[in-house]
Write a structure and sequence with these properties.
Helix content: 40-55%
Radius of gyration: 19 Å
Low-confidence stretches: none
Mean pLDDT: 85
Structural class: mainly alpha
Number of strands: 3
Shape: elongated
Number of domains: 2
Length: 135
């Protein structure tokens, strides 16, 4: 029965986003409402519904970042896990460093955002050549 959960969540997210935009729902109530709808429809836990909500939020951020301002944790307040395998994002043509020490997921998101904008340089993850001594 899990087929279509993400599509349904994205739809519910968009439906309730209008109420959030006109301040009928606070950010907390908005998340609760979307998660409760999904949990009820698919008979899953609120924690599982929260994972699908996070997916819908990230999708919405890619589509229209201004529409979801105020949802989710602010960038400076995110705790989370430490980046275990940090990567460097560079401009494809010049090699100029855009971001260092970010997770591969954050780098991929950054690359996708740049690709969606016109006139922005193409970004790539820098490949680090491993240097070994010749014997």
């Amino acid at each position: 029965m899990s087929k279509g959960i993400r599509a349904y969540t994205v739809t519910r997210f968009a439906k309730h986003l209008a109420a959030f935009a006109v301040a009928e729902l606070s950010a907390r109530d908005f998340r609760r409402k979307v998660c409760e709808d999904v949990a009820k429809k698919f008979d899953i836990s609120l924690s599982a519904a929260g994972a699908h909500y996070n997916y819908a939020l990230q999708s919405a951020k890619l589509a229209d970042p201004k529409a979801v301002e105020g949802l989710g944790r602010p960038e400076g307040k995110k705790g989370g896990r430490k980046v275990l395998n940090p990567v460097t994002v560079v401009k494809a043509k010049t090699g100029e460093v855009v971001a260092e020490g970010v997770s591969k997921g954050a780098a991929t998101l950054m690359i996708a955002k740049a690709a969606a904008k016109r006139g922005v340089a193409k970004l790539v993850i820098a490949e680090v050549a491993e240097v070994t001594e010749a014997t």
